Amino acid sequence: MTDPADSPDAAPIPPTAAAHAPAADRPGPKGPERASAGALTESGDPAASGEHTASGGPRGSGESVDRPTAEPLPSLSAERVVLGYGKTDVVHEVSLTIGDGGVGLIGESGSGKTTLARAFLGLLRPRGGAIRYEGRDLAALGRQERREFRRRVQPVFQGEALDPRLSVGASISEALTAHHRTGRAERAARVAELLTDVGLDPALAARRPHQLSGGQRQRVVIARALAVRPRLLILDEPTSALDVTVQARVLELLERLGREHGIGHLLITHNLAVVERLCRTAHVMFAGRVVESGPTSELLERPAHPYTLALREAVPRLNGEPPRAAARAEGRPAATGCPYRTRCPIAADECLAAPTLREIGGGRSVACHRSELTGRGGR
Question: Sign of torsion, CA 32 37 43 49?
Fold first, then answer.
């Protein structure tokens, strides 16, 4: 079922009605990410006020807005993190920090992106290294500190994360019911605020997830994540199941929310265009390891690692040549040495030794013995 909110001719996304945010889901290692919204939600005051311009009127297009200074983004980082399931390690000594401007995590399916996201949310404990929140090991936080962490760091999974048994309104208001003890009328008003803020008709609160389009479901997931007013969002493939026109509207929404509310994010995706649009910094993962990091525009324009180049060259182009196979895509990651050497077109004997991330200038790092041979020109 579709809705005018997802059509190319739909009206512009309504202005923000309030500061916000929801209950999130606890993901499992496989299958749809579906669980009670209360599993990841600890919220504060549910009250919200509309934004106004400097002249005191409602916010309009192109007008400046007076807002209180946003609280600083919380510090959330991974330090040489090792993660796994059963006896198998799937993430190997990954280090990165979620900072201002958005951070992108790029890689093919099975590279360990979602596993790392679960660790950032406190859903998976590292076997080695640590996830640090405000400088402290996340695993060592006390009960009250963990409540605050859950309020400030929220996940946004794909739209299929919604519980099919709950209406949209019930899914969004679940956190308010559990943590705010607000009245029914107040909860309904809050749900309407959140739906309006993500560009949906508040009347959709009565519908079930199967009665919504894919784009509408994704907006509901975002609205639910905003119910507890987070400062960081962990976005796991938020547009992968959407058509290009709906993707564009969801990306516009995420850009607006970040700009108006100062929300930071870690974006997990295999879509290079989405990372280029939403993230200032990017990290490329292959076989559970970060193989290249740096400013997004620089990294995509002049890849230093053969895998990054292969990802870029695999992107279809309008009115251009078909995508080029920059590497042997069928090769399994090597168990020893450089994991990419079984696919790499410039592999040599030195690649039998495992490379480590090294700085190459301009805020960039690469794990490749022969990065100087990677095609580093523009497209």
Answer: positive
